[in-house]
Amino acid sequence: ARVVEELGGDLGEAARVLGQLIGYETLAERMAVLEAGLTVRGVSFARDLKELTVEALDGFERIIASKPDPDLVEIVKEIDQSLQDYLDDNSTFE
Length: 94
What we know:
The protein is mainly α and 94 residues long. It has helices at residues 2-7, 12-23, 27-62, 70-90.
């Protein structure tokens, strides 16, 4: 939700999922929920989320006037890396 607020626009289901992931308190919780979700939804959904995290990180880089929350940026980077690892391990199977 904070990503959508900072970047604007309706980004659909992937944005809602990303917003929910960001809301978890710890990295362990975020990664466990992400892993479970990717197990159920698969590579296609991982690609959608990955596209969104890349877009979010790019948007954060372009925000000059109101610097984004550094904790939020770090969380999105962690999710992005986890998605990349998942895609590296699973893309050939779909």
